[in-house]
Amino acid sequence: MRNWSHTVSFSSTEVARPHDLDELRAVVVGAERVRALGTRHSFNRVGDTTGTHVLLDAMPRHLEVSPDRTEVTCDAATTHAELANALADHGLALPNLCSSPHLGVVGAAQTGAHGSGVRQPALAAHVTRLELVDGRGELRTVGRDDPGFDALSVGLGAFGVVHRVTVRVVPAFEMTQTVHEDLAWDALLPHLDAVAASAYSASLFTRYDDRGVTQVWRKHRVGDPEALDLRDLGARPATETRHPLPASGTQDVTPQLGVPGPSHERLPHLHPGFCPRFGSEIQSEYLLDAARAVEAIEALRGLADRLDPLLAVAEIRHVAADDAWLSPSGGRDSVALHFTWQRLPDELAELLPVVEAALLPLGARPHWGKQFACSPRDLRAAYPRIEEWGALVGAWDPDRRFRNDLLDALLDG
Ligand SMILES: Cc1cc2nc3c(=O)[nH]c(=O)nc-3n(C[C@H](O)[C@H](O)[C@H](O)COP(=O)(O)OP(=O)(O)OC[C@H]3O[C@@H](n4cnc5c(N)ncnc54)[C@H](O)[C@@H]3O)c2cc1C
């Protein structure tokens, strides 16, 4: 079995597809090493195991809106696209979404995934309850008020197999999406915070070269006050639908040009109806204190020639702080510096240390679901509560069933 981009061949010797909770518990206690997988959209071995991989797509489907309409509980095989579509039928919505709506709700939260927006935290911040089978095969339910919940919400799959997840929802809302082109660095950088805050969600696409930011995608909530006019900074409004990769067709992107529509059809860049089975790319991303965004951007501009041969496109987003112990945006309002690379793993393995040498000294933390090169020591240094997190993992999984190489390196040093 491989990940979505076919750059990771998993080490599992068995794949189990339990049909109910009893079968799931039996799989967990019957395996020396075991681990759940979602939609396999991660670009590294965070989800790997040398034992049994558990896929939850044969478990009973579940979707239940709370009586007060503030939460929804769904089964662990649910993707954001499925959940958002179902919520729309109830007049409800998720507060934010990733660039692709096809990621698993659980897998995205477990890896600290995020959308964009200075007031929008990572998706795990909206998780309010987890029902999971722990390392002893026991079904446990933990909620936001339970001690240690912030350790489990971005849990890297280390605490057990999540069987159901509850997330906070909001009344459905409409959005528009607009794209501006050619925002020069000199015009942008003194106003970066204002540009990031000028929409519910903002994404800046660049190659870090002298062309500056080639596309600014802004997603506005209908009815929000008038946003900063990017023409005042010299950018031009796009008059046709754009794809971040200029050579790509626009059939797979969500509607632009200011046409209002449901939030789940504007917040992701990729359209819910378009789901590539296989990805010819690799992604990396680093999150650091938003106060150091300009320093980090300047450092990457200095590497533009090194990035160029492998870079498909880079994206700059802002993410609000959250409380999860292992969240890359934990404890600080963050800027997220994303890279979509060409699918050239060997060449990328040589380039990533160069990128990290520029960003890690600025306090950058790599995205848990994307490719990175830094050492376990660097990772431990980035997370002040890592020892406490490891102790809790040990209590939930005393026989180390959910351990894999990445966790061993992280926790055992
Ligand atoms: C096209 C594309 C767009 C993306 N866009 C974004 C983006 O906008 N923002 C962003 O932050 N990231 C983004 N990502 C990265 C993505 O969110 C993460 O890689 C995330 O892990 C994907 O969820 P998944 O279901 O594929 O998880 P998987 O890759 O299947 O698993 C990831 C981790 O979650 C664990 N896990 C999964 N299911 C369970 C379960 N039921 N119980 C316990 N543990 C579980 C696994 O063990 C593993 O450790 C993108 C990736 C792709 C390919």
UniProtKB/TrEMBL annotation:
Question: Record's GO cellular component, any one?
Answer: membrane
Q: Determine if Oxidoreductase is one of this entry's keywords.
A: yes
SUPFAM superfamilies in UniProt: FAD-binding/transporter-associated domain-like
Q: Which Gene3D superfamilies match?
A: 3.30.465.10, 3.30.70.2520, 3.30.70.2530, Uridine Diphospho-n-acetylenolpyruvylglucosamine Reductase, domain 2, Vanillyl-alcohol Oxidase, Chain A, domain 4
Keyword set includes DNA damage: no
- UniProt KW keywords: Oxidoreductase
Q: One Pfam family, short name please? A: FAD_binding_4
User: Domain FAD-binding PCMH-type spans what residues?
Assistant: 8-172
Instruction: Output the superkingdom of the source species.
Output: Bacteria
Q: What is this protein called?
A: FAD-binding protein
